[in-house]
From TrEMBL:
Family according to the record: Belongs to the sigma-70 factor family. ECF subfamily.
Xref: Gene3D superfamilies: 1.10.1740.10, Winged helix-like DNA-binding domain superfamily/Winged helix DNA-binding domain (1.10.10.10)
RNA polymerase sigma-70 region domain sequence ranges: 39-105
Source species of the chain: Saccharopolyspora phatthalungensis
Top-level taxon of origin: Bacteria
Pfam families named among the record's database cross-references: Sigma70_r2, Sigma70_r4_2
Statement: the UniProt record of this protein carries the keyword Nucleotidyltransferase: no
Name used for this protein in its record: RNA polymerase sigma-70 factor (Sigma-E family)
InterPro entries membership: RNA_pol_sigma-70-like (IPR039425), RNA_pol_sigma-70_dom (IPR014284), RNA_pol_sigma-E_actinobac (IPR014325), RNA_pol_sigma70_r2 (IPR007627), RNA_pol_sigma70_r4_t2 (IPR013249), RNA_pol_sigma_r2 (IPR013325), RNA_pol_sigma_r3/r4-like (IPR013324), WH-like_DNA-bd_sf (IPR036388)
Length: 190
């Protein structure tokens, strides 16, 4: 296990070291101070490769780098000297990549609120008017009350099974069912 870990570390170190060496060899070292144009020409691909390694998507990496250069352009006059620009740029690419990854994570974790399926005309036609009123009233209950009542009376589950399915305590199932039945009675009565 430790050997695999060291082997993986060496592999990563060699690969990234090779990329770093390639990037360093291609950099120019001008005698005059760097301009933003010089920096763009010399560092753009290196920053794109950095961003690709962080976000794992070339198009997104290019967007991140473009945003970093745009920010650098806006703040160019506020830099201590042109040599500080590279550090600013690198930090902007890393922070931009982090933002992309946070947005991805948030998007993956988002679950839209449950949308009740519309009942088919056939299924509603088969229900009596009283049953239709109950189904309509169930749709107006808060989510947890609706879940508990449906699991109990449609799913024919016990309080313990409902508690496991919904992730609440048995006591919460009992009180939620009680409040749900009261609310349902009021909705049907109206």
């Amino acid at each position: 296990m430790a050997g695999d870990s060291r082997r993986a570390e060496r592999s990563v170190e060699q690969t990234l070291g090779h990329l770093r060496a390639l990037d360093s060899a291609s950099m120019e070292h001008p005698a005059r101070p760097l301009t933003l144009e010089d920096l763009y020409r010399q560092q753009r691909m290196r920053m794109v490769r950095l961003a690709i390694l962080l976000v794992d998507d070339p198009a997104t990496a290019e967007d991140v780098v473009q945003e970093a250069f745009t920010g650098l352009y806006r703040n160019w006059s506020g830099l201590r000297d042109a040599r500080a620009a590279l550090g600013y740029l690198r930090t902007a690419v890393v922070n931009g990549s982090r933002s992309v990854l946070r947005r991805r994570k948030t998007a993956r974790e988002y679950q839209p609120p449950h949308q009740a399926d519309a009942r088919s005309a056939e299924s509603l036609a088969m229900l009596t008017a009283e049953h239709q009123a109950v189904v309509a009233a169930l749709g107006k209950l808060p989510r947890r009350q609706r879940e508990v009542l449906v699991l109990r009376y449609y799913g024919d589950l016990s309080e313990v099974e409902i508690a496991e399915a919904t992730g609440v305590s048995r006591g919460t199932v009992k009180s939620t069912a009680s409040r749900g039945l009261e609310a349902l009675q009021k909705l049907i009565g109206d």
